[in-house]
Amino acid sequence: MxxxxxxxxxxxxxxxxxxxxxxxxxxxxRHVLILASGEKIRHxxxxxxxxxxxxxxxxxxxxxxxxxxxxxxIRDDLIGATMARQARMQHDYEDRIAALRAQLDRITSRQLLxxxxxxxxxxxxxxxxxALFDRHGKLGSLLDRAEESGLKAPDTAAPNASQPAxxxxxxxxxxxxxxxxxxxxxSGKGSAAPLETMSALGYAPLRxxxxxxxxxxxxxxxxxxxxIEKQQLAKITDLTSGATQTADAITAILKRTGVDVxxxxxxxxxxxxxxxxxxxxxxxxTDTFDVxxxxxxxxxxxxxxxxxxARDMPFGNPSPGHPVTSRYGNRIDPFLGRLALHAGIDxxxxxxxxxxxxxxxxxxxxGPSAGYGNLVEIDHGQGITTRYGHMSKILVKEGDLVSAGxxxxxxxxxxxSTGPHVHYEVRRDGNPVDPxxxxxxxxxxxxxxx
Length: 450
What we know:
By secondary structure, the chain is α+β, with helices and mostly antiparallel strands. The protein has nine helices and 16 strands.
């Protein structure tokens, strides 16, 4: 028992036996590890490599422990540094975003301001365009009247460098490509330069903002509209001048025959009566274009009135294409053989030939009348009447309204006549006048009445 007890106390005890070093003649001591457990006793010789391995394991353990301790110590510092760096980055990012937002707000505010300026200019431009369309509508009717009157004005709408090209007159009036450029500016594409539009308008592609580009476009379109207005005014002036000259020429011819153009528009009442009203100062801001239109309207009305008067008056030929056999004035009477007044003109004609009214009017006589034989008399107004005698047949009746050139009867030799012919007279207030004056005036008026 005492031996077992002693063995149990020897657990973990190293036993070293001397060894001799073979090199130096001595043996190195060997370390033996004796393990006792109850009756079992074990021993293990500790070799040098085992000691080295144990030392290494212990060293690795110590190093690992130190490393883990150091990591745990500096981890909080690393995490704090990383979080601080991320916070700085986030702050810088937020500052950058704030700066970008502020810049965006400034750009947006500038764009809104530019947009308002552009919209104001568009509104002004549209007003000018609508005014041109209204003027064109007024001018269109007058141009139609001028064309019907045979007046033509030179085409002054030739394209030039200061006017955008247009396919027709309507496109020119609408501002052409200038309006399309404005639409692009307002469509949200104003920040990006519409180079193709600017090139179409003759601009160099510049790096400009929308307001500057709009200023250029509006200047171009405004100049184009002004040029169109100038062209319209020039055309109106030319037409007014032509209508005035033609009316003056017709009026002068009519006056030489004793026809008053002004009285032709009179209905019989004194037009100077029945007018009045309070005095109002004259307008000082009257639009030049409207004044020009009023002038053209007055000139055309005067021309139309003069032409209507000329067509109503007996300036035609009752037997066109046939020679005159006896003129107005004193001659030897074929029946009495003595001097007598021939109150009209005789035209050579064969029986049954058409006899035409020389002007518009109302038939006052249609039947036999003494030496005239079958007579037709037409009242043309202003105290002027015409007579057509010796007809073989009358084709109108009293009260009929006839126009110049209407056939009113057939030539013959009825009444006091030596043979078939057309006897034609012109009378003013019942007194005979030389019809040749009206015939000559009619030939001159032909140029102005066509």
